Amino acid sequence: MRSDLPALIIIDMQKAMANPAAGQRNNPDAAERIARLLAAWRAADAPVVHVRHISRTPGSLFWPGQAGVQFQDALAPLPSEHVVEKNVPDAFIHSTLERWLRVRGIERIVMAGVSTNNSVEGSARSAGNLGFDTTVVADACFAFACTDYAGQARSADEVHAMALANLNGEYATISDSASVLRALTGM
Question: How far is CA 93 from CA 32, 90, 98, 107, 109, in A?
């Protein structure tokens, strides 16, 4: 594994995210883009981390033992790839992620996954605060429609865009998969 390349961190790409019960989402091609990123990282022998959410709420799609907890088949980790389990949105809280990166001298990370406004945003904020050079791949993330605090329905695109705006420049650089792939292959 080449620690001189950024680590690809794939967040919560589990079978539950493909369940219609998860809600209306944006970026329908995000999983395909994540798969392309994953293939490129593997070809470059660059570090890959898969993050899996394990819920503490009975009945959740992510409750242990549910089919939804499993990684999506196309994005399943190889035995050589690191897996981090989390119980809260932020992949750095109560996990070994920061230590795993630091021990390997990895200072740059690229994040993709779901959901943009929850686990991706929470993890990217921590990464930025911890001093990691963080890139979030906008078209390899997605969000779900929701209602805001004032009762206004917000589309998945709106939720996604606002989460990216919250991160841009302060915690992370926002990019797209084509640019990230060009940068990886150009290194």
Answer: 28, 6, 9, 18, 17
CA distance 92 to 86: 8
Q: Is the pLDDT of residue 16 over 70?
A: yes
CA 108 centroid distance within chain: 14
Annotated domain spans of the chain:
7-185
Q: Which stretch of DSSP H or E encloses residue 7? A: strand 7-11
Instruction: Give the model's pLDDT for residue 95.
Output: 96
Q: What average pLDDT does range 100-119 have in this prediction?
A: 97
In Å, what is the CA distance from 5 to each residue of 41, 119, 170? 9, 23, 22
Confidence of residue 88 (pLDDT cuts 50, 70, 90): very high
Q: Which of 72, 76, 92 is nearest to 84 (CA)?
A: 92
pLDDT at 48 over 80: yes
Query: CATH number for the 7-185 domain, one of 3.40.50.720, 3.40.50.850, 3.40.50.300, 3.30.420.10?
Result: 3.40.50.850
Whether the CA torsion 171, 127, 158, 175 is positive or negative: it is positive
Mean pLDDT, residues 168-178 taken together: 97
